[in-house]
Amino acid sequence: MELQRQHEFGGGLDRRLFLKTSGLSVGAFALPQVLQARAQSPGSTPAKQIIVIFLQGGMSHLDSWDLKPHAPAEYRGEFKGIATSVPGVSISEHMPLLAQRADRYSVIRSAYHGTPSHEAAIHWTLTGYDYPEANTTTKNRNTKPSMGSIVSKTKGPNRTGLPAYVCVPDRGQLGDRVRYAAAHYLGLAYDPFESGRPPSDATSPFPTPPNLSLAKGTDLRRLEHRLGLLRDLDHLPRALDSNGAMAGLDEFNRQAIELLAHDVTRNAFDMSQESIALRERYGNSSFAQRLVLARRLAEAGVTFTLVNFSDNQQWDTHGDNFRQLKNTRLPELDRAVSALLDDLEDRGLLDTTLVALFGEFGRTPKINPTAGRDHWSNVFSVMLTGGGIKRGQVLGASSPYGEIPQTRPIHFNDILVTMYHQLGVPTDRVFHDQFARPFPIMDSGVVIPELL
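^ thats the sequence. predicted structure below, dont judge the formating
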């Protein structure tokens, strides 16, 4: 059955085919009314900030959010489902804390896009655009601005002196062999600020990010003087600057001085202000401490925080899938994400902080000979909460063996468009690249009305 369907869809799914064969839910037809109601509430953009938890490598949907207890053993795997706080909904036994909090988030079980390649899929999920030639050597920089850079340009920070867009710990993926989280033609001013690596446990201090440190012997007045000299020296090249690169550098320099000059930025990154007890609630690992920092940044006023919840494809479980997920990956995720949801709720931030959790794709339904699962973009799961997203829902369903969407297929671009919508960013807005070619923020995708 699986091989037949792989052949039928060629390893990628056609959205128009799904719309013809599956049908949209009734909720889709209410979209105009939903948007009209939102438009009639001035200043009601529900999400003020967003935290994206990126599970680099691709999380197995069949072993986390979308178990298949009635499938044959070579599909269902070793894990059992457990009941959640939402009646009739079960998730993996290795996510008990998230099971208790299922009424605080929604899960999409029918997400999909068109590529099982790490590089192209990472580019797609971070930008909304396919990049078929993506690779780790010659095509390892994004060809369209990342979502974080778009938000940085259109929204800016929620508080003066802070970066609008931060990557924790850095902007790289696949062990920094690709960097698809950058601004591209929007310019340096909208590239992400890199936090640097948080501590690997809940008790160690977090040093000041390198970008917030002045060279020894340099104070702010001296730095501003040097930047003034640089502007004078750049006067001639600016006259020849046709694509605005120098203007972007000006904005980058201005932001650099602001970041260095404002205590609010240093305080946002100062994890010593958190109690050890709270940090231990998130977990005693580097990945857990990244979410502590993400909460601090969102609370301080950073608009978009991208958290790499892996260093180099830790979710890419081609072999020994079940041991890795059982012993490390799922318990760390379960503890840290449930603590983040509690922390945001306790501080009154969850209503205005959109939290999204996903990888670049899912894993193959059929287990391979090395007890692993391989790349699978035909269907996977995404968790969303906060920022005006309706909670306690499961949208869509995959087929009995977890191969394709069976009901309510949701292209990943629809998820990105919904995230932009909650932030108040119009996705039909057009920017121009370095060759003056126009590009919309997104060239496809619709808001998911059931989530609003």
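The longest strand covers residues 106-112.
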